[in-house]
Structure prediction request, 254 residues.
Amino acid sequence: MARRRQLYEGKAKILFEGPEPGTLVQYFKDDATAFNAQKKGMITGKGVLNNRISEFLMTKLAEINVPTHFIRRLNMREQLIKEVEIIPIEVVVRNIAAGSIAQRLGIPEGTRLPRSIVEYYYKNDSLGDPMVAEEHITAFGWATPPDMDDIVHLTLRINDFLTGLFLGVGITLVDFKLEFGRLYENEEMRVVLADEISPDNCRLWDSKTNEKMDKDRFRRDLGKIEEAYQEVARRLGILPEAGSRDMKGPETMQ
Prediction:
């Protein structure tokens, strides 16, 4: 497929004009950032793995009627998606205390929370993506009350499904971040899951050892970052098509 006009470049992905109206091509980079881009680096093969992992999880969610922007994977690093109007809110689901909630509230990392907690953050890098309440979101018009009803409903369904899916392959879903967008089709609007689901925006721990299998290995300089991403893909049964030029480690995973 010929390279099309670049529309946007973020920390981990690039968006290009799609082949048809209403579509975009999402390219997954190997770039890695943490702490609001204060820490930057490269994780070899991350884009290939995240493309495959996100494709797998988005497809599984579509099977349980969770609407998403995903159409199909095009190649090792690109996927075709529907163009949506991104709602400027990051939705974070926490099942186990880790990261910022452990620091803010003085909860020991690894503590299972009494119930899943949903938090909202305003997508604004210059402000450091501040935490906000639903009242802020609706008052400032970032999303309407019906939008929020859809977001909460979809978020809880996604959490229930992914928690079980990961547990089935020996992985604990500690927490994760979601983004949603408004999809306009035939003069109708609906809220759909957007962005990606991968070890970049999920905390994933080995269910037996609690070993981290996500971007925390980059954030905390734990090493073996590529191997952790590969292990998540291996457990999900994904076999990357990449050769040595695209990613380190074994060319096929079993």
Notes: The chain has a mean pLDDT of 91.
